[in-house]
Amino acid sequence: MFKQNEVEIVTIGDELLLGQTVDTNAVTLARELGAIGISIVRRATVADTADAITDAVRQALARTGTVITTGGLGPTADDLTRPTLAALFGRALVRDESIVAALEALWASRGRGGALPASNLQQAMVPEGAEIVPNPEGTAPGLRLTDGEGRSVTMLPGVPRELRAMLQQSLVPWFAARAGGTVLRTRAVRTTSIAESALAERLGASKRSVAGLPLAYLPGMEGVDLRVTARDLPPDEAAAMLDEAERLIRDAVGVHAYATDRVTMPMVVLERCAARGETIAVAESCTGGLLGARLTEVPGSSRVLLGGSIAYHNDVKVRDLGVSPDDLAAHGAVSEVVALQMARGVRARTGASIGIAITGIAGPDGGTPDKPVGTVWIGIDVHGDARAHRAVYIGDRQEIRFRASQAALDLVRRRLLEREPVGD
Amino acid sequence: MFKQNEVEIVTIGDELLLGQTVDTNAVTLARELGAIGISIVRRATVADTADAITDAVRQALARTGTVITTGGLGPTADDLTRPTLAALFGRALVRDESIVAALEALWASRGRGGALPASNLQQAMVPEGAEIVPNPEGTAPGLRLTDGEGRSVTMLPGVPRELRAMLQQSLVPWFAARAGGTVLRTRAVRTTSIAESALAERLGASKRSVAGLPLAYLPGMEGVDLRVTARDLPPDEAAAMLDEAERLIRDAVGVHAYATDRVTMPMVVLERCAARGETIAVAESCTGGLLGARLTEVPGSSRVLLGGSIAYHNDVKVRDLGVSPDDLAAHGAVSEVVALQMARGVRARTGASIGIAITGIAGPDGGTPDKPVGTVWIGIDVHGDARAHRAVYIGDRQEIRFRASQAALDLVRRRLLEREPVGD
How would you write A70-88 as a 3-class SS string? Predict the structure, then answer.
């Protein structure tokens, strides 16, 4: 009676209605379930009240038969999902000793003294007959209630890390068994340092599909992702069509394409450096550590990144990186000569094979007619061949800083491509 | 019959259900409307189909009487909001000459040659009797339909920039006139380095309100925010109740409360340092620049942050920070002695009054039974008084790193509080 590959999401929490939290779980659920052919056909966001939760879940069950709720499973009194849905399904709340034991073990492992607080024990009260969905990352287990007609609601916590872990460990296998062999898959070719309109001209301005798959332009701070979507196809067929679409997009876009799907620019640069035996050091002024933070986000980055200098104050540029005080006075910190000296200086100091320097005006203050807010000089020293690049980024302080870090890494990527043997 | 200060949102678009777009409009609408006393009581996200749109809007009108839709107003065939809601309200679509004129003027002003494309003229077809909501930022005007019982649906485009402009220019005044002078306001007391369950015990485990205002616990990577909400009150009365609630929460929570609302820990630490004339230098191993990046996100941080060292590789710890190679060999990089030497070293090197060092195991690899993944040593040197602190954070690599940066700043905040004269 209900389609086995459709689900509705009910998101519970005042903070989402009040605009205090951006709902990233919605994205996680859609991507992970979409990859195994499950469509989210509707999503509702409701307040932390029993009436609102009951109403939304009842309607979703009537329409679609399969519901996932997120949020409201914590230990405090405003966590109403468990008692409310127990009542909707006509079940009593009973204490589950396996959850009690797990909570006590977790409490002890975190080195907290004394007995588990009573409020945490709330989380061991589960509706009679509920399946427990293990939570490897936190104290609130998930729960699944199924009625006599096969309609089910799966309750997950709202904490993104916990939700992701439970999705991968329990929900994806459970739903995959129901999806009947077809998938919904997407492929994104990631580009940077090229405008959306320029991409559209390369791909054919009116083009809304590639290799028969719908095409979307997704601009963001990292660049523009070009995404195609294959729906309701067997996995092999979807993969072949996505491969063909990716090939056509890459042919049109050329060197601007730096990665596929969720591979990031730091991953690309680190991998390429590791393969060539290159090491990196960074010298950051306006980005203040952001470039280093993005590189070290990637596990294993210590094989490539030696470290570097956060040269925010000019004294640090002079002392740590050997920037000339005279050049600072004559040209300012945001200048070609200073960017070059920073890149050379951090490379010399650390012994890295590649030095990356960023110096710019991130705003909101500090701009001049000559050097408006957004002006950034990037210096790249590869094996002693140092070059500087100027750009003016639009956006707020965070966007300017992020775009500068992205451009710096892209420049390293292109410098390494230049050094590859032809045909590599 | 319906409350004049409640609204439901219906968000229309496959891309949101597919997880390809994060719904930032939800946050914008909630904040702007909340500030004038309008509560969003429910939000639904539905696909680009006439059935789904009709069903969601009909239910929302029946429950709440006032609905805002976003999305589906563009010029292409998958933009169904206009014809679908015209049909729901029993109205014909008629051509609006004022919209035609505006579209033609916009087309000409953008320097596009020739006549307006026919697809754009779709946007001039409006339901009979609809009010037009001007769109100063794009081609798709908004529309409002009202039925004989005063129920209304206001249709807005999904483009965030257009939605923001229309909200401020047209919707906020329209809703403010209905809200009758009452407001919806929230206040969050931000805490860190204390568990949600421990906060609940301090506040009274079963406490769901403070000073008569409902209380919510909002855990996140920065800590737990405690939020109270005042609804349907005149602005003065709401402010007084929020002040009282904040006072009671701060009394219960004590030193764990570091800020209010959207003030961040880096802002708190930078402001406190600036007021005291302190300067900061950072020495980052596992965080790789994240602490510096968070501090320099704040405009004006250059008054306090001098810079520092990304000491990812041990050679950099030795050369830049004067860490002892013998201690590195004997105790490892993640140790009390190395954290202390890093903090002292970066302070000495830069001349800052405060040195902050972070060294830890962010994972996913590198953990040992003695030092599991998540183990972090933080060194804080304030005017030569250096102390080290150990913690074990749970979560993935990003969370461990972020929590370490938050804890390091919180330790600085507490050290500065110790130094304040009593009563300050």
Answer: ECCCCCCCCCCHHHHHHHH
Nearest to B83 by CA among B137, B15, B136, B143: B143
Which tokens in the block code for residue B366? Answer: 């590198």
| Chain B contact set for A110 (CB, 8 A) | 392, 394
Query: What pTM does this model have?
Result: 0.81
Q: In this prediction, does ipTM exceed 0.90?
A: no
Q: State the smallest CA–CA distance between residue A29 and chain B in angstroms.
A: 8
Which pLDDT score is estimated for B257?
98
Using a CB-CB distance cutoff of 8 angstroms, which residues of chain A are in contact with residue B46? Answer: 42
Quickly tell me which residue has 């468990």 as its tokens.
A82
Is the per-residue pLDDT at B373 higher than 90? yes
What's the full length of chain B, in residues?
A: 424
Per the listing, tokens 């599909």 go with A209
Distance from the first to the final alpha carbon of chain B: 52
| Residues A67-99 pLDDT 10s | 999 999 887 777 899 999 999 999 999 999 988
Which chain B residues have a beta carbon less than 8 Å from that of A15?
216, 218, 227
Right CATH for A6-176 from 3.40.980.10, 1.10.3720.10, 3.40.630.30, 3.40.50.300: 3.40.980.10
Mutation target for A interface from B7, B18, B189: give the one with most A CBs within 10 A.
Answer: B18
Using a CB–CB cutoff of 8 Å, tell me whether A419 touches chain B: no
Cα four-point dihedral sign A329, A334, A337, A338: positive
Strand arrangement, sheet containing B209-210: B209-210, B213-220, B223-233, B183-191, B257-260
Would you state the pLDDT for residue A424? 40
What's the pLDDT band for B112 if we cut at 50, 70, 90? low
Give the integer Cα–Cα distance in Å for A301 and A314. 28
Residues in chain A with CB shorter than 8 Å from the CB of B188 are 20
Is B16 an 8 Å CB contact of chain A?
yes
Check pLDDT > 70 for residue B423: no
Nearest C-alpha in B relative to A291: B289
pLDDT in tens, B26-50: 888 988 888 788 889 999 999 989 9
Band of pLDDT at residue B206, cut at 50, 70 and 90: low
Task: Give B6-179's CATH code, choosing from 3.40.50.2300, 3.30.470.10, 3.40.190.10, 3.40.980.10.
Answer: 3.40.980.10
CATH code assigned to B183-260 = 3.30.70.2860
Rounded to an integer, what distance in angstroms lies between the CA atom of residue B315 and that of residue A219?
Answer: 40
**What are B422's two structure tokens?**
């009593």
**CB-count exposure of residue A258 (10 Å: 0-12, 13-18, 19+):** buried
Host H or E run for residue B226: strand B223-233
Distances (CA, A) of B379 to A41, B83, B389: 50, 63, 6
